[in-house]
Write a structure and sequence with these properties.
Blueprint (H helix, E strand, L loop, with lengths): L6 H12 L5 H8 L3 H13 L19 E9 L4 H11 L5 E6 L6 E7 L2 H12 L5 E8 L8
Length: 149
């Protein structure tokens, strides 16, 4: 499916990734097309799933969610049913901002966002450690976010 994207599509996606709120007229100027063809391309990119949605970038520090921890998770079972159970359960923990299955000495890497270290400790003990098939976790606390996009 990726082969269907031409240079203009890629430029549109790049511009929208930087600013999803710009008008079609602004976008058209940036990519060198008129408004109507840009609108048609954006609509097609949305329909084809290249654009999955639009969102606001929230200042998590101001929201009182400035503590970031990365958690390596090892599972006791890595058969498909166990992975599926873990994957489903992770969806129900709002503090888990990202979850990646890894090709490493551990199975998953989680990005967990909380108010502070005490809140993180509660989430780790009560929610993450009790996810299906979790055998071991290792936590790495971020001291500062240098780049986030």
């Amino acid at each position: 499916m990726e082969d269907q994207l031409d240079r203009l599509d890629r430029n549109i996606l790049s511009a929208l990734a930087r600013n999803g709120r710009q008008s079609m007229s602004e976008l058209a100027l940036k990519v060198g097309l008129s408004k109507t063809p840009v609108q048609a391309r954006v609509k097609r990119l949305e329909k084809d799933g290249y654009i999955r949605g639009y969102s606001a970038i929230i200042d998590r520090e101001r929201m009182g969610e400035g503590h970031v921890a990365f958690v390596q998770v090892k599972l006791s079972d890595t058969r498909s049913s166990a992975l599926d159970a873990f994957n489903r359960s992770v969806q129900g923990v709002p503090e888990i901002e990202q979850c990646h299955m890894m090709a490493a000495s551990f199975d998953y890497l989680l990005k967990v966002r909380t108010r502070d270290i005490a809140a993180y400790r509660r989430i780790l003990g009560e929610r993450i450690s009790s996810l299906p098939h979790v055998a071991q976790t290792s936590t790495f606390v971020a001291m500062e976010t240098v780049k986030d996009r």
